[in-house]
Amino acid sequence: MLWIIDDASIVGVLDNYNSIVWAVQFSGLSEFDVYAACTDENVDLLREGRILCRDEDRAGSRFTSCMIIRKAQITYDAEDGYILHASGTGLKGILSQR
Q: pLDDT of 7-42, one tens digit each?
């Protein structure tokens, strides 16, 4: 399950996705890729700039190892149809923008 955060508020939960790669780096930039069905709800949730946090990284009301969506795009595959692909980096990546 992925918690979706925007403007410091939880705006939704994504619990149905095709694939997720969540690579946490302790001395580098963490990255993620999420592939989900291209539904109106998922397109609305997985917008660029939103923050994703895994349920297993939740400790009470706090989250660790959160990621920010840098790119969200819709792709087409003859076998799977339309797929929403969101990717991005760990929140440490925000510091490198300065």
A: 989 999 999 999 999 998 888 889 999 999 999 999
pLDDT by residue (tens digit) across 45-90?
A: 999 999 999 988 887 778 878 999 999 999 998 988 999 999 999 9
What distance in Å separates the CA atoms of residue 80 and residue 92, rounded to the nearest whole number?
Answer: 33
How many of the other CB atoms lie within 10 Å of CB of 69? 21
CA distance 1 to 19: 12
Going 55 to 72 to 96 to 24, the CA torsion angle's sign is: positive
Phi, psi dihedral angles at 55 (to 5 degrees)? -60, -35
Residues 6+ apart with CB under 8 A from 85: 33, 34, 35, 71, 72, 73, 74, 75
DSSP 25-57: -SSS--EEEEEEE--HHHHHHS-TT-EEEEGGG
